[in-house]
Design a protein that fits this description.
The protein is mainly α. The chain is globular, with a radius of gyration of 16 Å. The longest helix is centred in the middle third of the chain and has 29 residues. The C terminus is likely disordered. Helices cover about 70% and strands about 0% of the residues.
Length: about 150
């Protein structure tokens, strides 16, 4: 989960192509007419991402021997919404925040608030950040503990 989040935020900050795609999808597109099918595909993808996040929350809690403070599906929906909001604000040019640094800090607060141990969350993000270039790139969303 942390690896995918780090990859996403880092990609938006460092890769102009990724930034353009997200800018178009989040700010310049209306899903009407012939693009209505794209909305169905996008919604399906977001639902799958949320489902996998819920599985990751469950796996992380089991691995750490802790009880989550809310149901995994609710936590996953909240985390996806937090990510969407961070990306939306950053792409809109909200000043004074570093998407990668501040975004990861906000997500860490969320994960700890969900019941995951602070040390494990921080370590997972540090591990994700230490992976070189393409080694960080999952072929598909790969469910990893924390």
């Amino acid at each position: 989960m942390c690896r995918v989040i780090h990859l996403l935020l880092n990609g938006l900050v460092t890769d102009e192509r990724i930034r353009r795609v997200f800018t178009i999808m989040m700010h310049r597109m209306e899903f009407v007419g012939e693009l209505a099918a794209l909305q169905v595909r996008h919604t399906s993808s977001m639902n799958e991402f949320t489902r996998r996040l819920a599985l990751d929350f469950t796996a992380a809690a089991e691995h750490e021997g802790v009880e989550l403070l809310s149901p995994p599906q609710l936590l996953a929906t909240g985390l996806r919404s937090l990510l969407d909001g961070l990306m939306h604000s950053w792409l809109m040019g909200v000043e004074g925040f570093d998407l990668e640094k501040d975004g990861i800090a906000a997500i860490q607060v969320y994960l700890v608030g969900a019941g995951l141990p602070h040390a494990a969350v921080v370590a997972a993000f540090e591990e994700a950040a230490a992976l070189p270039g393409l080694a960080r790139m999952p072929c598909a969303y790969e469910s990893k503990i924390v």
